[in-house]
Amino acid sequence: MKTLLSIAPLGFPWQTLDPFLFCVHHNDAYPAGNAQLAPDPALLAGRHIGQDFAGKDGWSMYHGDTVPGFPSHPHRGFETVTIVRNGRIDHSDSLGATARFGGGDVQWLTAGKGIVHCEMFPLLHTDAPNPTELFQIWVNLPAKNKMAEPHFTMFWHEDIPRLTATDALGKTTEVVCIAGKLDDRQGLPPPPDSWASEPGSDLGIYTIKLSPGAKWTLPAAQSADTRRVLYFFKGGALQVAGEDVPVKSVMVVQADHDCTLANGDAESELLVLQARPIGEPVAQYGPFVMNTQAEIHQAFADYRRTEFGGWPWGANDPVHPREKGRFAKHADGKVEERG
């Protein structure tokens, strides 16, 4: 059986397989910020404020109208995994949790029976650009956990396992093990009701950076039932299992095979998503992911009635003071300060 099963151009959002529902790569070259941690209002001309996804001048406001980002919105029935490679994200939610994170930090949020949250991108530097890069991945929950209690988890970049491999020519490959097991690296514990916490789910999330000319082999997954997808989002020439693959490609590979990556003359980066599928019906409408349309209708009714606990923050797009460092305040009052 071939190792490389299919190659396709990356779409928007990126193509995914069960249990992954959605994957998007935001890479915005934001300008210097003003006193409101926002772009100068003059730069907002010509944008569809509230629905700005066009990437004008190399950046988008998304649903934000002052600060870029995603003001308060609800979710039910799945999880969001937000990997912030550059810049800072200000999070607030209906549990009362709030945070500022970035520079390699990861937030893993189990929406479960319902949560409202916001994700804003404050422009902290007034005298320099504010580049912001992140992945957001939606991971489905099995039916038995769709109505679990919401759960907010932070993976600080200092704690996330990493692997650096040097090949026979002295070229290096760096792998960040955000979730799952890779060789002798074990990712941090995922939330308790996540599919990633199910025995045998074989869920893995990795980023791979190959230096020019590097060669490295991604080890086989644990199960023949696992499905593995590689996203080649940055670089030039790359061979995957001996076949040439153009940049901006998505590949499905045979998960229980070792998969050798041979890089060309430019630094290359990939995201890897793998897991055994949940294998249950999926009913999705906007921010809600359930198993039946009746459950979707119930989610809307519940949100209209309860607002999933309400919104304790006043503004729908709160941000923290400019001088505030990386931190998380959890719903139980526990505070983590990371500077």
From TrEMBL:
InterPro entries: Pirin, Pirin_C_dom, Pirin_N_dom, RmlC-like_jellyroll, RmlC_Cupin_sf. Residues 312-339 are annotated as: Disordered. SUPFAM superfamilies: RmlC-like cupins. It comes from the Bacteria. Residues 62-139 form the Pirin N-terminal domain. Residues 319-339 have a biased composition (Basic and acidic residues). Residues 206-309 form the Pirin C-terminal domain. Pfam families: Pirin, Pirin_C. Belongs to the pirin family. This is Pirin family protein.
